[in-house]
Amino acid sequence: MTSNTLIRTRNFAMLALVQVLIFSQIHLFGYATACVYLIFLLKLPRHTSQNELLVWSFLFGLTVDIFCNTPGLNAAAATAMGFIRNTILAIFTHKGLPDDFVPGARSLKWGGYIVYSLACIGIFYTVLFILELFTISYASELFLSVTSSTLLTMLFVTVIECFSRTR
Question: Domains of the chain: which residue ranges?
Fold first, then answer.
């Protein structure tokens, strides 16, 4: 195993533990739920292949689903986010970047990083809540849940990014 794989595995385990033990228990006003494990997917290097990104996304979602008793919702939503992540990242970066480019506040600047993160997190929560409600009849509840959860998660992602050593 390479050192990058070991570091990713360590980060995976640490974020999964924090997500399952702390953040999955927080439901603000019955609408907002934070999924801080998404920062792992947001911070994967640009050169990460689509297949590897989908595997990491699915495994993370599945791990959260197993421990939080949500039947495949996080796995489906995280995989959808992983599927579209490279396309969204390509919008905010140019072609001449090195292969080891890691999206972050320092590399994308804060404005670009926030918009990139909001787009990815918004897609995650849209898929998650559409699958959870399994209808769009409750459009106002869906909109409130997606918006509040996206903003709450973005708050935690921003705080983590501020204190991250590898910006």
Answer: 3-163
pTM: 0.89
Tokens of 128: 């998650």
pLDDT digits (tens, 9 = 90+) for 12-45: 899 999 988 888 888 888 788 899 999 999 999 8
DSSP string, the chain: --HHHHHHHHHHHHHHHHHHHTGGG--BTTTB---TTHHHHHTS-TT--HHHHHHHHHHHHHHHHHHHT-SSHHHHHHHHHHHHHHHHHHHHS-TTS-TT---SHHHHHHHHHHHHHHHHHHHHHHHHHHHHH--SS-HHHHHHHHHHHHHHHHHHHHHHHHH-S--
